[in-house]
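Incident review: delayed structure delivery

Summary: a single-chain prediction request sat in the queue longer than the usual turnaround. Root cause was a stuck worker, restarted by the on-call engineer. No data loss occurred. The affected request and its eventual output are reproduced below so the record is complete for anyone auditing the incident later.

Affected input:
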Amino acid sequence: MGDGSSLLAALETGQIDAYQLSPPTPYVAQAAGFGTVLIDGPSGDVPRFADFAYTGFAANREWAEANPEAARAFSSALNQAMEQVLADPRAAAEKIVDRMSAGDLPVLQQTLEALAPALSEDGCFDPAAVQSTLAVMHEVGITGSAGDPAEGVLWTNAYNQC
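Output delivered after worker restart:
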């Protein structure tokens, strides 16, 4: 279907009846009056998603291995930003609202508050969450196999201070 904007347009025009995507797009549809959030995964509506890796950042493995200081600096910057989000989602939303495409402070606040409990407090991957995420993705047919949850195969904490 495309990205969040495409899904919102399709829902608003009646081309689709529903979609699944993490915040903020469901909150945007609800705030605009043409959508209703049926299941709010990050808030715990679905127990199977309680231990789920909602976000991750990817880099080319060869680049990261050749540039470990840059990878660590990137990770450190993300961790500092995450600390701010977790400490005060409303203040964090106010700092970044002008850079977000929707520019809607209440929706951005709602998004950060909803996602905060589902995010890593220290930027580190939890092996159990990775395994749970891979299992769910396989169970619903996103992946052909459950994948190998071992560190170094699909994920690493090598560039975090874990």
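Verification: The mean pLDDT is 88.
Action items: add queue-age alerting; document worker restart procedure.
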